[in-house]
Amino acid sequence: MAKAGGGIIWATAEDLARNRPVVLSLYRQILRALNSPALPLGHAARLAKKAECRAVFIFGAEERSLHNIRDLLEAARHTVGLLNRGRLP
Fold first, then answer.
1. What range does the domain containing 41 cover?
2. Tens digit of each residue's pLDDT, the chain (89 residues)
């Protein structure tokens, strides 16, 4: 754990455990939204978007910076909002 200006910048095991249900929920929401018939995607494009989503979440799973984790969660929430409106991110 490193400190900068009195604040902790690296995630602890407790931080990661606390974020796990949120991350899994967002991941599932994005995958469900990608299956929506409202999105103008063919089968191959839908599979490509799902693979892209998996790659982002796998990459994000290795992140240990609290700031970057917060940014990734915010981006996932924004993506869910766009997908639920029938728009592609």
1. 27-85
2. 444 445 567 778 887 788 888 889 999 999 999 998 888 899 999 999 999 999 999 888 888 888 888 899 999 999 999 999 988 88
In the 3-class helix/strand/coil scheme, how is 16-70 assigned residue by residue? HHHHHHHHHHHHHHHHHHHCCCCCCCCHHHHHHHHHHHHHHHHHHHCCCEHHHHH
Residue 16 domain flag: no
Q: Tell whether pTM > 0.85.
A: no
In a domain, 77, yes or no: yes
Spacing of C-alpha 52 from chain mean position: 11
Number of domains in the chain: 1
